[in-house]
Design goal:
The chain has 681 residues and is α/β, with parallel strands linked by helices. Among the domains are: 147 residues, Rossmann fold, CATH 3.40.50; 134 residues, ANL, C-terminal domain (GMP Synthetase, Chain A, domain 3, 2-Layer Sandwich), CATH 3.30.300.30. Helices cover 35% and strands 23% of the residues. It has 23 helices and 34 strands. The strands form 10 sheets. It has an 8-stranded mixed sheet with strand order 14-13-10-8-9-16-17-27, with helices on both faces. The protein binds 5'-O-[(S)-ethoxy(hydroxy)phosphoryl]adenosine. The site of 5'-O-[(S)-ethoxy(hydroxy)phosphoryl]adenosine (WTA) has 22 residues, from helix 12, strand 28 and strand 29. The site of 5'-O-[(S)-ethoxy(hydroxy)phosphoryl]adenosine has 22 residues, from helix 12, strand 28 and strand 29.
Length: 681
């Protein structure tokens, strides 16, 4: 197994390190000193995180940086009080950024004649302050939203999403944002778990030139919530696309009507929140069918975003920053909304698809606004690199000085393309590793440490100073260099989730119990550390998929599948895909009275669309089989399935699973192979 990692590593090493990078060292000796001391010394770690926290505004200063007396329930900035909305707006204004542009939003519709976007909305820090105050006021006065309440957001990439997030934080309330590619079922499950009584949505949004309607999905979710004992009292709808909607006066209200009579200059004092209050929950997938509500803190989260923006993105006051993620996922929470505003940046937010109206839309955006820092995903790069490079060269991208990627491992071809075309074979480009649970980026290349770690493109860099990360074997021992193991954090960090919402036991079980006798955080990823200390994250070690960078559990997909009356059993694995990284490949056993046919496959995909959402259904492959191969103890032989789908030969496959007779494995191989062939034809 270790072989895999070594091969990946070699390919990068042989082809990518540009000689110029060796000399490209940012000399910041104090930073080098920090790195070296925090690796060794716990006291230095506290000093380090204390130093960053001291740069932020606190209503009340903390009295202890880290209380680790009750692991894994680490407490950061104990006794401190602050507020994310205050830090993102009021505090920016206090620092002289009142009239600085905070957000430039570009809608997807394109004006062919004028060769420009049809809609651009610009917000200064003062605009964000005023507009979010108006929303806070309306929520507090009209809907009686109180500190601690959780609102569910089901919104596309429009400015009202960050505005509602800020408005919620101002009140000391919390949000649970659900990505708009999830179905009514998935939305309802999350709203029920969070106990929300208010959902904020939009009529629709633009995607590849079409209007995608959203509000009817919320209507459906409201019904499902009611059947499960949760009364949604209010659905606030932002008018974005103007599509026709059914309307229920009892619970529906337009956003513009809700705020229409609120004075534009109203202010709502930002609630003084404890560092350890939580700011939001964000549901993410694990190895069971039930999503996990990651509960992120306020104080530690703010400090972690501030420090990573400064060090990994090296932000300066005149940067134009663009993170292409969707705010419905953690990358958008941390690095479109809370992080960039916290550092007073001007950032770009784009509503639509990278290839609309043509696959040069993103490059035109970089040129239009003079983007200097760019943060995107390998899937997007792979999508755009299919087109001629002339499409990129047409544009002036010379402003870009840092380009990072996130969300999934970046393959050498994609990295090279990105580095050449966007990075001009010169600038800082790195794959920053982190997860919903970590809240913040935890690896990368950052200015100042070049002396210890010269830039090595293609790797995930090295751990952020102040947190230690190791590659471990099953027993929690450190793997030798270049041997594959599990990536783990061996010390806490400030942006870390506090617990899983309403389920602390699961928090302990899932993340902190993997390595017997050791209080280490198990990430669920495979990685190697090379001989120079650089990390190379290779992908998930558990049954979690990354489809176009979107995280989804195979157990969620399987449990959705068996809800369909025709399905007796199903086993989902990730099949590698040249653009999306992985796509769900679902082996499906039908109940006896059903026979496989393309219509039924379509129906099952439709079923996935309604139970989980288009984010799964549009890429899923359904393969009908007579049975799914299992071990004698009844466990589905996933590795075997995966190997067959990846094209492994029968000899390799029969040695894969312990405790399975060769004959059984062969039988499985043949039946799966024939299903695959049918699928192809
Ligand atoms: C994967 C996204 C390789 C990894 C911020 C992790 C990565 C999961 C990288 C978390 C990267 C994220 N290189 N793999 N740079 N970044 N991953 O919660 O498998 O949506 O465990 O957070 O994405 O996904 P999540």
């Amino acid at each position: 197994m270790a072989k895999e990692g070594v091969e990946v590593y070699k390919e990068f090493e042989a082809n990518i390190i540009p000689p110029a990078w060796k000399d490209r060292i940012w000399n910041k000796d104090d930073f080098k000193k920090w790195y070296e001391t925090t690796v060794k010394d716990k006291k230095a770690v506290e000093e380090w995180w204390g130093k960053w926290a001291n740069e932020l505004f606190w209503f009340k200063k903390w009295n202890k940086v880290l209380d680790d007396s009750n692991p894994p329930f680490y407490r950061w900035y104990v006794g401190g009080e602050t507020n994310l909305a205050y830090l993102d707006t009021d505090w920016q204004i206090a620092q002289g950024r009142k009239n600085k542009l905070a957000l430039i939003w570009e809608g997807e519709p394109w004006d062919e004649a004028m060769e420009q976007p049809k809609e651009v909305r610009k917000f200064t820090y003062y605009d964000l302050f005023r507009e979010s105050n108006v929303i806070s006021y309306a929520l507090r006065e009209k809907l009686k939203v109180k500190k601690g309440e959780i609102l569910t957001f089901y919104l596309p990439m429009i400015p009202e999403l960050p505005l509602y997030m800020l408005a919620t934080q101002r009140l000391g309330a919390r949000h649970s944002a659900v990505y708009s590619g999830f179905s009514a079922d998935a939305l309802a499950t999350r709203a029920i778990d969070a106990g929300s009584r208010i959902i904020v949505t939009a009529d629709g949004f633009y995607r590849r030139g079409k209007i995608i309607s959203l509000k009817p999905i919320v209507d459906e979710a409201v019904k499902i919530c009611a059947q499960n004992g949760l009364k949604i009292e209010k659905v606030i709808t932002v008018k974005r696309a103007g599509n026709e909607l059914p309307w229920n006066k009892e619970i529906d209200t337009w956003h513009h009507e809700l705020i229409s009579d609120v004075p534009k200059n109203v202010t709502v004092p930002a609630e003084k929140c404890g560092s350890e209050d939580f700011s939001y929950i964000l549901y993410t997938s694990g190895t069971t069918a039930t999503p996990k509500g990651c509960q992120l803190p306020i104080g530690g989260y703010a400090v972690s975003l501030y420090a990573t923006m400064k060090l990994i993105f090296d932000v300066k006051d005149n940067d134009i920053y663009w993170c292409t993620a969707d705010i419905g996922w953690v990358t958008g929470h941390s690095y479109i909304v809370y992080g960039p505003l916290l550092t007073g940046l001007t950032s770009i937010m784009y509503e639509g698809s990278p290839d609309y109206p043509r696959p040069d839309r993103w490059w035109s955006i970089i040129q239009r606004y003079g983007v200097t820092i760019f943060y995107t995903t390998p899937t997007a790069i792979r999508l755009l690199m299919k087109f001629p490079e002339d499409l990129v060269r047409k544009y002036d991208l010379s402003t870009v000085r840092i380009c990072h990627s996130v969300g999934e491992p970046i393959n050498p071809e994609a990295f090279r393309w990105y580095f050449r075309n966007i990075g001009k074979d010169d600038i800082v480009a790195s794959s920053t590793w982190w997860m919903t649970e970590t809240g913040q980026m935890l690896t990368g290349h950052f200015p100042g440490l070049g002396k210890i770690f010269p830039l090595k493109p293609g790797t995930n860099g090295y751990p952020f100073p102040g947190v230690t990360m190791e590659v471990l074997d099953d027993d929690g021992n450190t793997c030798p260099p270049r041997v594959r193991g599990y990536l783990a954090m061996t010390s806490p960090w400030p942006g870390m989730l506090m617990t899983l919402y309403k389920n602390s036991q699961r928090y302990v079980d899932v993340y902190w119990s993997r390595f017997k006798g050791k209080m280490y955080f198990y990430t669920g990823d495979f990685a190697i550390k090379d001989q120079d200390g650089y990390l190379w994250v290779l992908g998930r070690a558990d049954d979690v998929l990354k489809v176009a960078g979107h995280r989804i559990g195979t157990a969620e997909i399987e449990s959705a599948m068996i809800k369909h009356p025709a399905v007796a059993e199903s086993a989902c694995i990730g099949k590698s895909d040249p653009v999306k990284g992985e796509i769900p490949f679902i082996f499906t056993v039908l109940k006896q009275r059903y026979s496989p046919n393309p219509k039924l496959a379509d129906e099952l995909k439709m079923h996935l669309r309604t139970t989980i959402g288009p984010l799964v259904s549009s890429d899923a492959t359904i393969a009908f089989v007579d049975s799914v191969p299992k071990t004698r103890s009844g466990k589905i032989m996933r590795r075997l399935l995966k190997a067959i789908v990846c094209g492994a030969a029968i000899g390799d496959v029969t040695t894969l699973e312990d405790g399975v007779a060769i004959e059984e494995a062969k039988k499985a191989y043949e039946s799966v192979k024939s299903a695959l062939e049918q699928e192809k034809s």
